Amino acid sequence: MSSRTLRRWAASACFALATVAVVTVGFVQGQIAITLPLFVGLDGVSVLNATVAALSFTVTLLVSGAIFAVEVLRERDRGPYPTTGPEIAAVVPSYGDASALHRSVESLLDSDYADVRVYVVCEPGDDATLDRARSLAERGRVTCLVNDRDPGSKAAAVTYAVDRTDAPYLGVFDADERVHPTFLAAAAAGLDDHEVVQGRTFPRPDGLLESITYYESVVLGYLSHRLVSHLTDFDMVASNALAMRRETYDRVGGYDPRMLTEDFDFAFRCYEDRVSVRSSFAYPSEIEGAHTLRDWWGQRKRWMTGYAQVFHRRIGRFHPVASPRSATSLVFCAGAIFGNFVVLSLVPQLAVLAAVGASAVLAVTVGTLWGICLGVRLLDARLGVVDGVGLAWLLVPVALPFYSLAAIKGIVEYPLSWEGEWFRVEKEG
């Protein structure tokens, strides 16, 4: 039996053990009664730990949701935005995206901001995407590049394009990303007093799985960061729906092609370098979500394997004296990883509440999750970026634990069986 097979078996066994351990600990912990103080001189009230966990989750959701809504509505009132100004070099790395590439290129060219040039970076041998990029370049303001210097990663593709433009502003977008017409104009205005403007992306909710993925991106992709951002100044800087100053990209060092999740690594380096980031969520970009359960699972497992890789790097570069933010950076990174264990542990704790008849607490927790998802969907419908509402939001409480399982699988595999491979979602265009 090969060592690779043994490592894969070991990873599967550890994943099973980790899952059982989290569920068991959550169930046991949920049944522990704790005493909460009320007022000085009065006896406290005894409640189950499951109640505290559920209500803490609920309050966090409510506060984060309120921050998100205020940010969106406030940004909608900031306009009008400039339609011309410093040139933005919009980089679109592309591999195997012949059917989807038109979404990003055409939406960028149709932006309210006129001074944008699109750089499509293709991979050697990807003739179908290269042909599509060349045909799109016929519209003008599109440059088609082939990354024959260091192919094989999104990070290297972005670097290749950046080296071939002297534009003062840079943008990075996915090939399947339909960019909101106002985003670049809002980003250009934001770059007057910030170094980076990070937009929002949402999976196109055109099917059941795709709609669940949309709500998942709301709860885990954006709401989970808002409270942390306001308390600590840490903002996620991704590699899509992004605009930044060129000197900032150069100073931080750009994306690292050795990292599986190059944007997660870049975000922490931006934080440690005290880069000023503005979030721009009022003009979101539509991307293509996973269409099959295999793609959904593989994509999330890849994300968390990459997060574990970044955590590994952060440990190696921990130096609170030379870099005062390296300690908090390490804490945030650990939270993004081990938060998945916390989310999974909520499932048995909610089961404890159901078993003891604490239906009110259970209803408040699930109802808040439903309300947040429905509220954001209605807000997006009001903004005109999605059609209708549907009923998929009802399945979110069931879907989130499966996200945690995929995340834990990726985290466990990183030290045991990951050999540098990565999973790619099929895009339909």
Automatic annotation (TrEMBL):
Enzyme superclass (EC): transferase
GO MF terms, alphabetically ordered: glycosyltransferase activity
Keywords: Glycosyltransferase, Membrane, Transferase, Transmembrane, Transmembrane helix
CDD domains: CESA_like
EC number: 2.4.-.-
TM spans (from-to): 46-70, 327-347, 353-379, 391-412
Matches recorded under PANTHER family: POLY-BETA-1,6-N-ACETYL-D-GLUCOSAMINE SYNTHASE
Protein name: Glycosyltransferase
Organismal lineage: Archaea, Methanobacteriati, Methanobacteriota, Stenosarchaea group, Halobacteria
